[in-house]
Design brief:
Elements: E1 2-9, E2 18-25, E3 30-34, H1 41-48, E4 56-61, E5 64-65, H2 71-77, E6 78-81, H3 92-97, H4 110-122, H5 138-151, E7 156-160, H6 168-185, E8 188-192, H7 196-202, E9 205-210, E10 213-218, H8 225-232, E11 235-241, E12 244-250
Parallel strand pairs: 3-8, 3-9, 6-7, 7-8
Antiparallel strand pairs: 1-2, 1-4, 4-5, 9-10, 11-12
The protein binds adenosine-5'-diphosphate and magnesium ion (MG).
Magnesium ion binds near residues 41, 42 and 160.
Length: about 260
């Protein structure tokens, strides 16, 4: 189990962006991190990936602190996909192979290349393997970054708005892929999502961030219209169409 315990963070002395945030995520599941712009979602997963150092708190994986690991050990446990992945002249294949860096001592082995190739195929990027990163569309670059994180074979996969620049079909394919990998490999996937319908459809667990704290966290029973309204200040109905959960917003109805 992944346990985030009492994380607090501020960028400068002053306002606390995160104040004592605690929640758990289960292996084999996808957890959606939900909340308005500026709620601290990106900050939270950057703290979890040790890009930012929290003022207090810890992240435990099977009761072991991720903060106590060396950088290299940490990179074997935890992979992070930023919202806007960097470009550059590297090929897609080489960028994905970089995901193997925490395992490589001298040079990439045939097995490392095979793992990179498999990760590319999972995201349907095989045909783009030799393309330069800066020649990709935003959506393709986002998929390449996800493939790199998958090649890292982490036990915790952190994704910052992984579907934000994807076309509708690719959004579903990517979330299906994340779900399949989480379930198949028994890893904890944590995805910041703005699309409540994607979250409802593909995530097992939901963390609502509000005012620097974890407003609610839990399974499907947590995805209620009351919680969504409280966090997003927008009236919604939660219903189902052919067994698919749907969040229908009514932005013009005053709460
Ligand atoms: P979210 O991802 O939920 O939209 P962020 O975690 O990016 O929110 O930001 C949370 C708050 O922290 C916002 O008020 C934002 O303005 C502030 N913030 C983000 N990055 C920085 C930074 N590098 N320096 C100072 N403040 C920041
Ligand atoms: Mg963000």
């Amino acid at each position: 189990m992944l346990e985030v315990r009492g994380i607090s963070f501020s960028y400068a002395a002053g306002r606390k962006i995160l104040d004592n945030v605690s929640f758990t995520a289960n292996p084999g599941e996808v957890l959606a991190v939900l909340g308005n712009n500026g709620a601290g979602k990106s900050t939270l997963i950057k703290c979890m990936d040790r890009i930012l150092t929290p003022l207090a708190g810890d992240v435990l994986l099977d009761s072991q602190s991720l903060f106590a690991l060396t950088r290299r050990e940490h990179a074997r446990e935890c992979a992070y996909v930023p919202q806007s992945p960097p470009g550059g002249s590297m090929t897609v294949f080489d960028a994905v192979l970089l995901g193997r860096r925490p395992y490589i001592s001298w040079d990439a082995t045939a097995r490392d290349r095979e793992i990179a190739r498999e990760a590319l195929d999972m995201l349907g990027l095989g045909p783009l393997a030799l393309r330069r990163l800066d020649e990709l569309s935003g959506g393709e670059a986002q998929k390449a970054a996800i493939a790199r994180a998958i090649a890292q074979e982490p036990r915790v996969l952190l994704l910052d708005e992984p579907t934000s620049s994807l076309d509708p079909r690719a959004q579903h394919e990517t979330m299906q892929c994340v779900r399949r990998i989480a379930a198949g490999r028994g890893i904890c996937a944590v995805a910041i999502l703005h699309d409540l319908n994607l979250a409802a459809r593909y995530c097992d667990r939901f963390l609502f961030l509000k005012d620097g704290g974890a407003y609610a966290c839990g399974g499907r029973e947590t995805l209620t219209s009351e919680n969504v309204e409280e966090v997003y200040h927008m009236h919604v109905h939660i219903t189902e169409y052919m067994g698919i959960p749907m969040v229908v917003p009514f932005p013009n109805i005053n709460l």
